[in-house]
Structures are given as C-alpha cells and as structure tokens.
C-alpha cells in the first residue's frame, strides 16, 4: 500500500478575488450606519415590549 501524502494546490478563483473589495465596502457601510441600526433595534424592542404589556 502506498502511504505517500497527496499534494493539493489551491488557488482563489477570479470571483473570489473580488470578495475583499466587497467585504470592505460592507464593513464601511456598517461602521457608518451602526448608530442608526442600533436606534432602530432599540425602538423595535420597545414597541414589542409595549405590545406584550398591553396584552397582559
């Protein structure tokens, strides 16, 4: 039985090479809009809690 390890070479595909640029753009958007997203989440939680309180 042959016990030599098989060598495998990996390369990123052209589409994969576009990912860092897209991820950087998404990261920039998130950093810019994080306060707005957090305000919306806080408001949504408050509305949901109020609905629960009104049902009880």
How would you characterize this protein structure?
This protein is an all-alpha fold. It is 73% helix and 0% strand. The chain is elongated, with a radius of gyration of 24 Å. The termini are far apart. The mean pLDDT is 93.
Short description:
The chain is 73% helix and 0% strand. It has helices spanning 14-17, 19-55.
Compute the gyration radius: what is it? 24 Å
**What structural category characterises the helix and strand content?**
mainly alpha
Find the count of extended strands (DSSP E, 2+ residues): 0
Task: Estimate percent helicity.
Answer: over 70%
What's the helix-strand series?
A: HH
How far apart, in Å, are the first and last alpha carbons?
Answer: 72 Å
**Low-confidence segments:** none
> What would you call the shape?
elongated
Largest sheet: none
What's the overall average pLDDT, rounded?
93
Q: What's the helix count?
A: 2
Strand content: under 5%
What are the salient characteristics of this protein?
2 helices, 56 residues, elongated
Lay out the secondary structure:
Blueprint: H1 14-17, H2 19-55
